[in-house]
Amino acid sequence: MDNATATDVQRRTVLQLAAGLAASGSATLNSASAAAVAPQATGKPGDFDFLSGHWKIKNRRWKDGTWDEFDSEATVHGILGGVISVEELRIPARNFSGMGLRMLDVERKLWADYWVNAKSGVLTPPPAWGSFVDGRGTWDSDETDADKPIIVRGVWDRITPTSCRWFQAVSRDDGKS
User: Fold this and answer.
1) Residue 104 phi/psi, 5° resolution?
2) Chain segment 91-137, per-residue pLDDT in tens
3) How would you classify the pairing of strands 148-157 and 123-133?
């Protein structure tokens, strides 16, 4: 086994262990978000199979009146027959990494999307809940910003065999805009 393959095997083992630990601790975090739009119960194993593999990512965000653009990379593994998707995100230029953990509640047909920042190593509850409808996945979560309630929406769309788009938006008016 060469070094790259050994590293990939080690990384996958660590990601699988992290997913197992997170799954065992999520039993009490099983209620859907009270966000403005309730997700449709359409989730099924394999919904995130399109994301498995190694990705080079172009990011941009609107910050202080201009676009902040930067590159990142991700490695994504589907496990447990497509019921869990584990993503390791790396942004070397910003010394940042984290893990996206998506788990399907098979009975409810909804996906829970968690985040773990490598700086804290802590699973961030509650998850965003969502599903795919007509090739577009939408996840809403109720959060706070400066002690004020906000709704954060993440969307997966434009999914092809070699690309996809993920974007995020924030509503500060209870989902009206």
Assistant:
1) -85, 125
2) 999 999 999 999 999 999 999 999 999 999 999 888 999 999 999 99
3) unpaired
Pull the structure tokens for residue 142. Answer: 């109720």
Write down the domain spans for the chain: 3-26+40-131
Does residue 71 have a pLDDT over 80? yes
Beta carbons within 10 angstroms of residue 168's beta carbon? 11
Q: Hunting for tokens 């990601």 — which residue is that? A: 15
Phi, psi of 47 (to 5 degrees): -55, -30
pLDDT tens profile 30-46 = 344 444 578 999 999 99
For the sheet with 66-79, list strands across it. 53-63, 66-79, 84-91, 96-105, 110-117, 123-133, 136-145, 148-157, 165-171
Give 109's DSSP letter. Answer: T
Strand blocks (E) in 49-147: 53-63, 66-79, 84-91, 96-105, 110-117, 123-133, 136-145
- Rounded CA separation 116/22 (Å): 10
Predicted pLDDT of residue 114:
95
Tens of pLDDT, residue by residue over 144-167, are 999 999 999 999 999 999 999 999
In a 13 Å sphere around the CA of 43, the CA atoms on its Cβ side amount to 26
